[in-house]
TrEMBL record:
GO terms for molecular function: transferase activity. It comes from the Bacteria. Belongs to the CoA-transferase III family. Coiled coil: none annotated. The keyword Coiled coil does not apply. SUPFAM superfamilies: CoA-transferase family III (CaiB/BaiF). It comes from Pseudonocardia thermophila. Keywords: Transferase. InterPro entries: CoA-transferase_III, CoA-Trfase_fam_III, CoA-Trfase_III_dom3_sf, CoA-Trfase_III_dom_1_sf. This is Succinyl-CoA:(R)-citramalate CoA-transferase. The keyword Transferase applies.
Length: 390
């Protein structure tokens, strides 16, 4: 079975030509919700993600996640036979995802004009660093560059240090998410028009899309937002605070009503009416001294007691989790936020569950990232016999 009965994308076939993260994360999301994602890799080494990240028993754990639920075949696009195989796959597909540098697909003889002529309903999702046009379109564009030019790196880190990064490839992941969203929008449009279209996703614009009021803050208010460490300037209290037993807790109580409850939890109800803290603007203006007050309170108590008091007063708070914390947490367990997926080499692989959760047609992870060419026979044999060009 290639699709999951009752899933939102049951019956949708996706051909994935991407590699590394941005394009393949789009494919992962679509596969999670039941699409038949056929991943095409070059013979020999396949997608470099097979060798990235931590390895156990010779298998990349990153690959186990990002290629989950996909069927893997090989085709060498540098040969006429490989191009013909991909062309035949595209004729039978609903969506084709690629993240080559712009112009590469055309050099293979698989440009939009060719693909859409053979399959007018095809949706072509194109993921690149800078988009399919414009003066930078030809440039190589990794996720980190998109994070920098999309504005995220300038905002990330401590103000007295160079820009930092998150612990994951967030630029690539945002591009993959926008690519999946774009594919679904194009499929919805096709249901009305019968025709596919091109979805042009750039990494830098995918990052830019998440930067809230960054641009109008500068253009209209003259404010260049910068790095502010663990806080957002003017949003207080919302920070990481130490406890007596050495843990760190994130406490977010910047709304007026929530701050009132925090003051009560601290045994300092008078803070709610103190002119320095009584309003959102006042708390923002006195952010550092307010953080010091809260840190003085949390550092005198063990983490469990702080959390219990905050929970009693409905103040949002939580530990800064590692993977070990997630695996041990009863809420994660109750909701099956981390699932165990069978794997021929590793036995089972714990990984994040499908998100979001749908009540009637939920997604499902069918298998971990397969071996190179694991589905060659069943996928290629399913293809119709190539038409005689004459």
């Amino acid at each position: 079975m290639t699709t999951v009965q009752g899933t939102p994308l049951e019956g949708i076939r996706v051909v994935e030509l991407g590699q590394l993260i941005a394009g393949p994360f789009c494919g992962q999301l679509l596969a999670d919700f039941g699409a038949d994602v056929v991943k095409v890799e070059p013979p020999g080494g396949g997608d470099p993600m097979r060798r990235w990240g931590h390895q156990v028993e010779g298998k990349s754990l990153s690959w186990a996640v990002i290629a989950r639920g996909k069927r893997c075949v090989t085709a060498d696009l540098r040969t006429p036979e490989g191009v013909a195989t991909v062309a035949r796959l595209a004729e039978q597909a609903d969506v084709l995802v690629e993240n080559f540098r712009p112009g590469t697909l055309e050099r293979f003889g698989l440009g939009w004009d060719v693909l859409s002529a053979a399959n007018p309903g095809l949706v072509l999702v194109r993921v690149s660093g800078f988009g399919q046009d414009g003066p930078y379109a030809h440039r190589a564009g990794y996720g980190s560059i998109g994070e920098a030019m999309g504005g995220l790196r300038h905002l990330t880190g401590e103000p007295d240090r160079p820009p930092s990064r998150t612990g994951v490839s967030i630029g690539d992941l945002l591009a993959g998410m926008h690519a999946a969203f774009g594919a679904l929008l194009a499929l919805q449009a096709r249901s009305r028009t019968g025709r596919g279209q091109v979805v042009d996703v750039s990494i830098y614009e995918s990052v830019l899309a998440m930067t809230e009021a960054l641009v109008p803050d500068y253009a209209l208010a003259g404010v260049i937002r910068g790095r502010s460490g663990a806080v957002l300037p003017g949003i207080a209290p919302s920070n990481v605070y130490p406890t007596r037993d050495g843990e760190l807790l994130l406490v977010a109580a910047n709304q007026d009503t929530v701050f009132r409850r925090l003051a009560a939890a601290m045994g300092r109800p008078e803070l709610d009416t103190d002119p320095d803290y009584a309003t959102h603007a006042a708390r923002g203006a006195h952010q550092q001294q307010l953080d010091e007050l809260i840190a003085d309170w949390t550092s005198g108590l063990p983490a469990e007691e702080v959390l219990a008091r905050l929970d009693e007063h409905a103040v949002p708070a939580g530990r800064v989790y590692t993977a070990a914390d997630m695996l041990a947490d009863p809420h994660f367990q109750a909701r099956a936020s981390i699932i165990e997926v069978p794997d021929d080499v590793l036995g089972t692989v714990p990984m994040q569950a499908v998100a979001p959760r749908l009540s009637e047609t939920p997604g499902r992870v069918r298998w971990t990232g397969p071996e190179l060419g694991a589905h060659q026979a069943e996928v290629v044999d399913d293809l119709p016999v190539e038409r005689d060009a004459s």
